[in-house]
């Protein structure tokens, strides 16, 4: 009975909703995917030194420069980030789609105007190759962290940025990247599923993308394509670890967004007095 009822409902929805679905998809293609905005979020971070209270990180990810995501789209995202004047900028991966070589240089050039007092840092996503894309970014002054860590000193205090590739998943490999860090670590991981490993390593903050926020979020059903992720968009926590996942700038597979606008994010850090980093 449940199966029949479900099938009947679905048939009814198809019969009556084709026009509405077509209209929604057209809106998602023509308008919604271009409705880029700034998401400002304050994140409480366990063990964060007082010197970093108010530190602002600009996060721009998943631009997917392609025939569907233009130079102007990326230029607008860059302009929004720069207008916020963050202390440092993080690029979260997937600069092109399926490593499309014709857009590698174009993606890097569109991101070239990015600058921040404490630097611009990048990681690689599952759509990025391991050589041409990082070389193009580095040629424009971006420090690419491929399973590597860098130490920043801001206001006399240290903080470490650890960046892992999408394919770096084994706990031991992630542990090797952060081993020996004596300052709070911010893990840059394209895939939000790395929250599990970060929490096991007591890493206080993870910045991710990859999900596009689901890209298509259906009323009553939610982001069907992104349900496997522990955090689909925005802030989440596991034990002592906070995570922020950006919906990103571009689109993938289909050039449509529904109930899931593109974004650049500006994250303000504050110490979390309720949690211990130890």
What's this, in brief?
By secondary structure, the protein is α/β, with parallel strands linked by helices. The protein contains six helices and twelve strands.
Topology record:
Elements: H1 2-30, E1 37-45, E2 56-60, H2 71-84, E3 88-91, H3 104-111, E4 120-122, H4 132-138, E5 143-144, E6 148-154, E7 157-164, H5 171-178, E8 185-189, H6 195-200, E9 205-208, E10 234-238, E11 241-245, E12 263-271
Parallel strand pairs: 1-12, 2-3, 3-4, 4-5, 7-8, 8-9, 9-11
Antiparallel strand pairs: 2-12, 6-7, 10-11
Helix pairs in contact: 2-3, 3-4
Number of domains: 1
How far is the N terminus from the C terminus?
54 Å
How large is the radius of gyration?
19 Å
Strand-residue fraction? 15-25%
User: Helical element count?
Assistant: 6
Please tell me what the overall shape is. Answer: globular
CATH class: Alpha Beta
Strand order of the largest sheet: 1-12-2-3-4-5
CATH topology: Purple Acid Phosphatase, chain A, domain 2
CATH architecture: 4-Layer Sandwich
Mean model confidence by pLDDT = 90
Given the helix and strand composition, which structural class is it? alpha/beta
CATH homologous superfamily title = Metallo-dependent phosphatases
Helix-strand pattern, N to C? HEEHEHEHEEEHEHEEEE
Described by its quaternary structure, the protein is single chain
Largest sheet: 6 strands, mixed
> Percent of residues in helical segments?
25-40%
């Amino acid at each position: 009975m449940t199966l029949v009822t479900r099938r009947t409902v679905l048939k009814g929805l198809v019969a009556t909703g084709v026009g509405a679905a077509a209209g929604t998809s057209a809106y998602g293609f023509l308008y919604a995917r271009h409705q880029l905005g700034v998401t400002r979020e304050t994140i409480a971070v366990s063990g964060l030194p007082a010197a970093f209270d108010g530190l602002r990180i600009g996060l721009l990810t998943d631009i997917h420069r392609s025939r569907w995501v233009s130079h102007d789209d990326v230029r607008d995202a860059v302009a929004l980030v720069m207008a916020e004047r963050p202390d440092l900028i993080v690029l979260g991966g997937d600069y092109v789609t399926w490593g499309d070589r014709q857009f590698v240089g174009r993606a890097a050039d569109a991101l070239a105007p990015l600058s921040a007092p404490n630097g611009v840092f990048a990681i690689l996503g599952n759509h990025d190759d391991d050589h041409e894309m990082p070389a193009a970014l580095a040629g424009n002054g971006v420090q690419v962290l491929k399973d590597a860590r860098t130490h920043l000193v801001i206001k006399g205090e240290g903080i470490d940025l650890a960046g892992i590739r999408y394919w770096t998943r084994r706990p031991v490999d992630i542990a090797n990247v952060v081993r020996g860090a004596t300052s709070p670590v911010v893990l840059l991981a394209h895939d939000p599923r790395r929250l599990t490993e970060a929490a096991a390593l007591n890493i206080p903050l993870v910045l991710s993308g990859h999900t596009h926020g689901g890209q298509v979020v259906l009323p009553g059903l939610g982001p069907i394509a992104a349900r496997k992720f522990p955090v689909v968009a925005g802030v989440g926590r596991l034990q002592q670890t906070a995570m922020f996942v950006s919906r990103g700038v571009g689109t993938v597979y289909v050039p449509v967004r529904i109930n899931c606008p593109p974004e650049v994010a500006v994250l303000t850090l504050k110490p979390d007095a309720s949690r211990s980093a130890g």
